[in-house]
Amino acid sequence: MRSLPLIFNSELNCISSPIISLMASKKLEYRLAFAYIWGFTFSDENPSFPGALGPRIEEGFNNIFDCLADFYNVEINRHYEITTEEIYELIKEETSKGMPVIIFTDMYNCVWTNVFKKVHINHSCTIVDLDEKGNLFCVDSAPPCNGAIMKIEDFYESCKGCITINLDKYINTDVDWRAILHNGVSRANKNNTFSSLSKFVNSFNNYFDVEAEIKTAHGHEARASYIIWRLLRISGGRALFSLFLEHLGERYNNTELLNISKEFKNISNKWKINQALVLRYMNNPQDKDILNRLSNNFSFILESEVKMAEVLSQI
What we know:
Blueprint: H1 16-25, E1 41-42, E2 57-58, H2 64-72, E3 75-79, H3 84-96, E4 101-106, E5 122-130, E6 136-141, E7 144-150, H4 152-158, E8 161-166, H5 177-190, H6 193-207, H7 210-214, H8 226-251, H9 255-283, H10 288-313
Helix pairs in contact: 6-10, 8-9, 9-10
């Protein structure tokens, strides 16, 4: 059965992960896709979750698909206005050529999830092959799945559309890397990334409420709360931006960018450490040493990201 090794990153979702993974499997460069991923938004309180900070955190913006089209001429085609039978024929055609198809489905019909036949949740997964009975062989990035069979009846019951990928016109030419880099920093500034980050750090230091955060989770489990998985997504975004900088440094022989890439990797790791510490504190709210460490780490992150913006804008 044909498969597709997925690249797992908390910021790559169930659509972007298989596209990036496909390009990687074909040894095609893709790291410019992460040029504009650096951001952070901290919105007003969500009335559905009073007192909780997690639902207010967003990565800011994520236009990986636009970057793939602009920098590499990758075609990502969305198919909504076709029947399920037409989608299945498209899957047969594409997978016979070794190309995956991303389908819009329902977790209720995804046997590899823990909500199979229990809860209806809109989802996407990737079809990479068909078995001898016509069932679909799937991979998935969330929840991670390296291969599982979706029965054809589950496909027909749940599929609402699909995405196909065309790499026939792929290009990888030299770019005005300084313009792209400065545009990435400019977007972060224009979208109030650093003022939002400062507001979040201040709110965390003064208003973090364990009970309010746990109420955002399905089943009221701390590990499933909004703040846990959203902090992980922020960490993932910094890791991807680090890859973008690494690519520029390698391609254009720029040691400074390679060093800054390492700094961003450290920032990503610091976000991930804090995500783990937040979970530990939510399970042990009497341990104020954890809270103090979190406060110091978040302050370090804020200072580091502001400094990186200043350095990158001067390159």
